[in-house]
């Protein structure tokens, strides 16, 4: 081995590893390095459309929840940019996503434990260390952290037709400009689909264009970010969720879909209002269709156009629609990265091919206990719906740092929540009963 053995090698630098790197930056003795294949930090650039907003409070930044004195907070960023007061005066209900992306890039530029333009090709475990191989070198680490994000979900029917006029939303910012004047179908009733619709309806040519939006959900459904639902995005809830038997976790996550994957009410309102203006105020006959409760079954390119077959979940019929272009707003999926292939059977995956994650976000595997593999954004099934979201990234980073150091470096104790998810309600009720008897 030539280069020093790192305490931790992190693969991928999205917001989640950026948060972990920012926490580790406060511990000078930690030998850590994070690697990303992009030339520089860039947060979902393919979806950076005009006017898009963050769905999360800016207080839930990379560090504030666990390390409020960190120089890498959103407030520090505002001060460094000399626009603290102006930002507050702007009084955003939801801040522009571009602003949060700039904050993330500012942190990435300031941390010295990050390396960009480094694509990890393979990870092996030999002689008590992970061997992380790039094209031109190999780095060694006692622990590994995986922060490679999710992959675009392309349904089987979408695989063969992808190209300039049929693409996933992760390519939208590069390709939408080429679709002017075409008949466009957007498939997918989540926030990405909604943002594509908002964008298309905002273009000057929208009044002359045919646009259809398909959602498999019963309707174009709003994000539930009401106070009690937001309790799902607390450490106390995640700890309780992790302790549930596996059989209970999947149905719970399915029921909570709109708490994480619903559409911001502001986006839905903007779409409806633009639709109103186009239909009634533009002075033109407009060809705009909202198609809720449709599951796309097949998509073909025939006779110079795309032909979609859908099942209408409302009345059970099968319907067809034709278009010149298709945007796949069909979300993202977890996959075990190819570079882990050499570890193969040593990873303990469940029957769906998902990691078995311990409470501290380390993966069950048959290597030595001291050689941990942490995985972020890979545990919706184990830690609940907060896992792919920004909300708890600072807390998760602190949990991982504590696990790595083997001590409570970050004090993560919280006051018990008033919401009692499990049996401690008995204790609370008995306390109340005693209180009322006094
Ligand atoms: C458009 C969009 C907006 C979102 N907005 C919000 C929001 O407002 N609020 C919220 O809570 N959640 C939001 N999310 C969900 C979630 O917060 C983001 O997807 C977030 O970026 C996930 O962070 P990550 O670090 O896991 O992955 P990513 O941001 O995807 O980063 C992973 C990184 O790993 C790199 N990588 C992959 N493979 C390798 C390799 N072999 N070698 C080196 N590097 C590699 C990739 O290039 C990438 O840079 C949004 C998601 C999307 C798609
Ligand atoms: N501004 C922001 O903050 C922002 C922007 C974009 C994304 N995000 C976040 O990123 C995450 C991913 O969002 P996303 O919108 O990309 O994905 P998503 O929420 O998973 O939505 C994907 C949509 O595609 C639908 N779909 C899949 N296959 C289909 C088929 N065969 N026919 C019809 N519809 C089909 C899904 O239907 P089902 O629901 O029935 O499965 C779902 O409505 C979410 O957490 C979201 O909140 C945030």
From TrEMBL:
Named in its record, the pathway it takes part in is: Siderophore biosynthesis
Keywords, alphabetical: FAD, Flavoprotein, Monooxygenase, NADP, Oxidoreductase
**Keyword NADP appears in the UniProt entry:** yes
Query: Which InterPro entries does its entry note?
Result: FAD/NAD-bd_sf, Lys/Orn_oxygenase
Keyword flag DNA-binding: no
GO MF term list? monooxygenase activity
Q: Which SUPFAM superfamilies match?
A: FAD/NAD(P)-binding domain
Can you tell which superkingdom this protein's organism belongs to? Bacteria
Cofactor requirements of the protein: FAD
Q: Which PANTHER family match?
A: L-ORNITHINE N(5)-MONOOXYGENASE, MONOOXYGENASE
Please report which protein family the annotation says this sequence is part of: Belongs to the lysine N(6)-hydroxylase/L-ornithine N(5)-oxygenase family.
What is the protein named?
SidA/IucD/PvdA family monooxygenase
Q: Which organism is it from?
A: Mesorhizobium retamae
